[in-house]
Amino acid sequence: MSEALNGSRTTTGEVAGAWLDGGWKAPFGDAIMRTLATPKRMLVRGEGCRVWDVDGNEYLDFLAGIAVNALGHAHPALVDAVSAQVATLAHVSNYFSTPSQLELAQRLRVITGAGDRGRVLFGNSGAEANEAAFKLARLNKGPHGRKTRVLALHNAFHGRTMGSLALTGKPPMREAFEPLPGGVEHIDSTIEALEAAIDDRVAALFVEPIKGEAGVLDLPEGFLRRARELTEKHHALLIVDEIQTGVGRTGRWFAYQHADILPDAVTVAKGMAGGVPIGALVTFGWASDLFTQGQHGSTFGGNPLATAAGNAVLAEIERSDLVGNAARRGEELKQLIRSFDSPLIDDVRGHGLLIGIGLTDGEAHRLSDAALANGLIINAPNESSIRLAPPLIVGDAELAEFRERFGRALASL
Ligand SMILES: *Cc1c(COP(=O)(O)O)cnc(C)c1O
């Protein structure tokens, strides 16, 4: 233990001893649960769109902690807000409210479009937000008798806790943990499959509007609008999981806004507090009346530290029009990727700064490793897809740098 701690870093990111030259890998393998593969690098510091590893190498970060570091690393707006809040009041329990909690709830009501009838339930992660949404679905009894069915989409990812895993449409993740909470049926992501499946016994339809973990797969044109019509007709909740797509990532505040609809509930997490753990369920209209006192709760959920971080992030996104930046830079980045004209690149998917690159060969892991070796962090969610989710602050310099490093990685395969 003391041996391993010799490698601890100082706050300036300087590192001594045992962590250098891959020396961290054995302690990682020893102490961290086997659920995680050995990471590719040990990181010690970040600034803007860059991070540095323990050996002093610099990387352009086009993953942003999987769409989390919306403002990049060590953004002064987030650093100042969190520092000030932790020096004032970090946590109070749900017996008390705080100004930052109410401010963030109000901000979420505005940017989601839920407005005055919107309500917010705070948690600490995406999975927890979806757990809350699942409980909300159970409370939808409907006017026509008992609702027993919950619909979700094949290949959609909703989290790893038992309830959110029940919603997740990826059998290999689920099988070891069955039986999971019941009633969930997975359907194909087509309008026809939805029309065939939905009826008055459906309590809720869960939709991931762009399937991030599946490789950034867009829904078919018109799916969300049809889903809105059908769920309304059958008094089913339309619940949109915007944990990865939300908070400006796709070039709108939320991806459902591209389809010009309002859902009954939306789950938000990843990018909302720029790296401080947070999650939220936001309800709209009649869905805001389903939960009653005592039916859900969380010790940390909505605490002043996390909500202050959320306010800082949302305020900075507004101040610097990062939603607009995501839309513009996303288009530029897609153009840039297409301009490589590589036989390896099959298609370019996604919206704004959530971009998937479909590969002709199953070379995604090799390509992401080659990128890393060339100072670029990207991600291979599966063998045939590359995912890009850079900080929303990317500009000309970062795009130029990406072109160079990604080009070198492509050429090296
Ligand atoms: C990441 C993610 C989740 C789970 O969030 P956690 O914070 O990891 O629990 C759920 N849904 C989607 C769409 C996600 O991208």
TrEMBL record:
The keyword Transferase applies. InterPro entries: AcOrn/SuccOrn_fam, Aminotrans_3, Aminotrans_3_PPA_site, Class-III_PLP-dep_AT, PyrdxlP-dep_Trfase, PyrdxlP-dep_Trfase_major, PyrdxlP-dep_Trfase_small. Pathway: Amino-acid biosynthesis. Keywords: Amino-acid biosynthesis, Aminotransferase, Pyridoxal phosphate, Transferase. The keyword Repeat does not apply. Its EC number is 2.6.1.11. It is an enzyme of class 2 (transferase). Its cofactor is pyridoxal 5'-phosphate. One of its GO terms (molecular function) is N2-acetyl-L-ornithine:2-oxoglutarate 5-aminotransferase activity. Belongs to the class-III pyridoxal-phosphate-dependent aminotransferase family. This is Acetylornithine transaminase.
